[in-house]
Design a protein that fits this description.
Helices cover 50% and strands 0% of the residues. The protein is mostly helical. The protein has one domain: Orthogonal Bundle (DNA polymerase, domain 1), CATH 1.10.150. It is globular and about 35 Å long. The protein starts with 21 loop residues before the first helix and ends with a helix. The protein binds FE2/S2 (inorganic) cluster.
Length: 94
């Protein structure tokens, strides 16, 4: 009921024309995906963050993903992947 009438984006909705979103690519390249259970939530939380704040601090990033639990990575690689994606997204916009 809380999302009635709202647009919903799933992890599958981030790919465009067969290309992964920069966040998806960065997660893979940085080793931020292990079992993958938390990955959709992490990436969508990160996308929401970067949509509002294209250059977040590490603290802002950790806060943004805090609603997702990861039992595999220790979060460092996830935070690194989000930073890498933010740089790549910024480069594409220039
Ligand atoms: Fe396994 Fe996050 S990668 S829970």
């Amino acid at each position: 009921m809380e999302v009635n009438g709202q647009e919903i984006t799933t992890i599958e909705g981030l790919e465009r024309d067969g290309k992964l979103h920069p966040l998806q690519e960065a997660f893979l390249q940085c080793g931020a995906v292990q079992c993958g259970f938390c990955t959709p939530g992490m990436i969508l939380s990160a996308k929401a963050l970067l949509d509002e704040n294209p250059n977040p601090s590490e603290e802002e990033t950790r806060k943004a993903i805090s609603g997702n639990l990861c039992r595999c990575t220790g979060y460092a690689k996830i935070v690194e992947a989000i930073k890498v994606a933010s740089i790549r997204i910024d480069e594409v916009k220039r």
